[in-house]
Amino acid sequence: MTAILDFLQLHIEMVYIVILSVFLGIEVISRVPSVLHTPLMSGANAIHGVVIIGAIIVMGKAEADNWLALVLGFLAVILGTLNVVGGFVVTDRMLEMFKKKK
Amino acid sequence: MSGLLTLAYLIGSITFIVGLKMLSNPATARKGNLIAAGGMFIAIIGTIFLYEENGERLHNYGWIFGGLFIGSVVGVLAAKKVKMTAMPEMVSLFNGMGGACAMLISIVEFDHLANHNFIDLARFFKEVVGPGLTISGDIHVGESFTNPAGKYLIILLGLIIGSISFAGSMVAWGKLNGKVKDFSFNGQHIMNLLVLALIVIGTAWLLFDVHHAYGNGELFVGNQMRGQGIGMKLDVQQAGSIVHILFYTVFALSLIYGVMFVMPIGGADMPVVISLLNSFTGVAAACGGFLYDNPVMLTGGILVGSAGTILTILMCKAMNRSLKNVLIGSFGAKATSAGGGSKEQGNYKEVTISDAAVMMRYAGKVMIVPGYGLAVAQAQHVCHELEKLLEEKGVEVNYAIHPVAGRMPGHMNVLLAEADVPYEKLEEMETANAAMPNTDVVLVLGANDVVNPAAKNDPSSPIYGMPILEVELAKMVIVNKRSMKPGYAGIENELFFQPKTSMLFGDAKSVLQQLVAEVKTL
C-alpha cells in the first residue's frame, strides 16, 4: 500500500494529467454528430497508437545480446507503426469522402 | 529529457487534443486528423533522436527504422486497399495491433525489471552481505531498494489491458469478416468472472511478493546485522521465480479473457465492442506513459480512453441498450425466446420492380432508408444513381439515417459519402421523422430493426424503447430485403404486414440496378 502511495506521490503531476485528460476527452466527444462516429473512432484509434513511443524506447535501449528485448521490441515497433500509420490513413480516407460532397 | 524533446511532446499532446476536437466537426475533421498525425510524427522523431535515459541516447537505429518502415508500408497498403464496407474490421485490426504493442512493451519491461532487480537483490545478499552476515561492500541504502511494486503494477496493467484488447480485437475482426462464429456455453459469464478474478488475484499476489522481497531487503539494510541472512537470500530467489511464473500466468489468462469476453457477443454488436476495446488500448498506452514518465503517451492514451468510453456509451444509447446488456449478451438469448412467433405472421404483399419504379417516379417526396443490407450488397453507388435520376425527374429524394444503421454508427454516412451523395441529403433521425408524414414513398434498403414499429408500441418486444425511423407515418413504404427472415434482433417486423407496405425481395444492388433501368424508361 505504501509503495503504491509513494508511486502516486512520485507521479502526482501525471495523475493530474490523467484526471484532466479524462474530462477533456469526455468534453471533446460529447458534441459529436453521429455522422462522424466512425471516422472519430478511427481517428482515436490512430491516436492511441502513440504507444509506439514506448516500443521505440524499449527497442532503442535493448542491449545487443538481449534477444527477447530485441525481437519483441522489433515486433512492437512494427505493430505500433501499423496502428499509427494505418489508423491515420484509414481515417483520412473516410474523411476525404466527406470533402468531395461540395 | 532534453528541452527540445519536452517541446516535441508538448506539441504532440496539443495536436492530439486539437485534432480530436476538430475531428468532431464535419468541416474541420480532415484537417484535425492531419494535425494529429503531424503531432504524432514529431513525437516519434523526437523520441528516436532525442530520448535519453540515464544520459544515454537510444541505439539499435537499424531495428527501429526497419520496424517503422515495415509497419508503415504494410499499414498504408492495408489502409488504402480496404473497401469502405470493411472499414470496421480494419479499425478493429489496427486497434488489436496497438494492444499487442502495449502488451509486448510490458513483457520486455517486466523481463528487464525482474531480472535486473532480483539479480541485484540476490547479489546483494551474496556479495555484499558475506557468509558471516558481515557487511563487506558498499551499500547504497534506499538506492537499489526503491520498492518497485508501483512500477510492477503499471507494467501489469499495461500487460493485462493490452492483451485483452489484442485478443478481443482479433476475435471482433474475425467476427466482422465472418471467419469467427458466435460461441457461448452455459455458465460462460461465471467462467469469465472467474478468469477475471484469477487475473486480479495473480496480480495482487505478484505485487505482494515483490513488496515482500523488497521489504526484506530494506529491513536488512536498515538494521544491518539483524536480518536472517540465509533465509532472506532464499526468499529473494524464490520470489524471483514465483514472480516470473505469476507474470506469465496473468498474461495467458488475459489473452484467454480477451477471447472469451468477445466470443459470445453477436456480430452486430461488434461496433460497441470495438469502441470499448479502442478505449482499452488507450488506457494501455497511458500505462506506458506512466512507465516512461512520458506525457505525450499519457495524454494521448487517456484522451482516447475517456473519449472512447463516451463514444461507446453514445453508441449503446442510440441502440437503447445498456453496455452491460451488450457485454453479457443477454440480448440475443432474450430475443430468440421473444421472437419465437408469439404473434401471427399475417400477410405481406409483394411489389414488382416496375410498380415500385412508377411509385417513386411519380412521388413528390421520396425518403431512402439505408441499412445493413445496403452495406453488404455494396449498393451505395447505384443507390446514388437512382437518387440522381429521380431528382432529375423532379422528385425530392433524401436519406434517413438511423444512428446505428450499417455496421457502425456513422457507417452509412461514410458509405454514402463515398458514393458522392451530398452531405445535405443525409437527414438524421429526428429531422427525418419530422418529415415522414409529408413523404410519399419510403424505400427501405436492407434495414429492419431500425424501422420496426414494435420498438414504439410493443412493450414486450426486446427492442422496445429503441428510437426508430417512423417510416409507417409515410404514405407508402417499399421494403427491399433478401427474404422475410427477421433482422439481427431476431424478431418479426409488423411493418412488413401493414397494408401500406410492399415488399421488394432481392439483393439491394441488383434491385436498385433494375429500378434505375426502369425509372429511366418512364
Q: What does it look like?
A:
The complex is a heterodimer of chains A (102) and B (522). Chain A is 78% helix and 0% strand. Chain A has 102 residues and is mainly α. Chain A folds into 2 domains: 1-31; 35-102. Chain A is flat. The mean pLDDT of chain A is 86. With 522 residues, chain B is an alpha/beta fold. Chain B folds into 3 domains: 1-81; 85-328, no CATH class; 349-521, 3-Layer(aba) Sandwich (Rossmann fold), CATH 3.40.50. Helix content of chain B is 62%, strand content 7%. Chain B has helices at 3-23, 29-50, 61-81, 87-128, 149-176, 188-223, 229-262, 270-291, 295-318, 323-328, 330-338, 353-361, 372-377, 380-392, 411-418, 429-435, 454-457, 508-521; strands spanning 52-53, 56-57, 349-350, 365-370, 396-401, 426-428, 441-445, 476-481, 501-505. In chain B, helix 4 runs antiparallel to helix 7 (229-262) and helix 8 packs antiparallel against helix 9. Chain B is elongated and about 95 Å long. Chain B starts with a helix and ends with a helix. Chains A and B meet through helix 1, helix 2, helix 3, helix 4 and helix 5 of A and helix 1, helix 2, strand 2, helix 3 and helix 4 of B.
Summarize this structure as a short list of keywords or feature phrases.
heterodimer; A: 102 residues; mainly alpha; 2 domains; 78% helix; flat; B: 522 residues; alpha/beta; Rossmann fold; 7-stranded parallel sheet; two-stranded antiparallel ribbon; 18 helices; 62% helix; elongated
Computed CA radius of gyration of chain A, to the nearest angstrom: 19 Å
Please give the alpha-carbon distance between the first and last residues of chain B.
73 Å
Which structural class should the secondary elements of chain B be placed in? alpha/beta
Order of helices and strands of chain B: HHEEHHHHHHHHHEHEHHEHEHEHEEH
**Number of discrete domains of chain B:** 3
Please, what is the average pLDDT of chain A? 86
Residue share in helix of chain A: over 70%
Shape of chain A: flat
Q: What's the helix count of chain A?
A: 5
Number of helices of chain B: 18
Integer count of domains of chain A: 2
How large is the share of residues in beta strands of chain A? under 5%
Low-pLDDT runs of 5+ residues of chain B are: 139-144, 221-231, 330-344
Largest sheet of chain A: none
Global morphology of chain B: elongated
What's the gyration radius of chain B in Å? Answer: 29 Å
In oligomeric terms, what are we looking at?
heterodimer
The topology string of helices and strands of chain A comes to HHHHH
Task: Please report the total strand number of chain A as a whole number.
Answer: 0
Low-confidence stretches of chain A: none
Give the biggest beta sheet of chain B. Answer: 7 strands, parallel
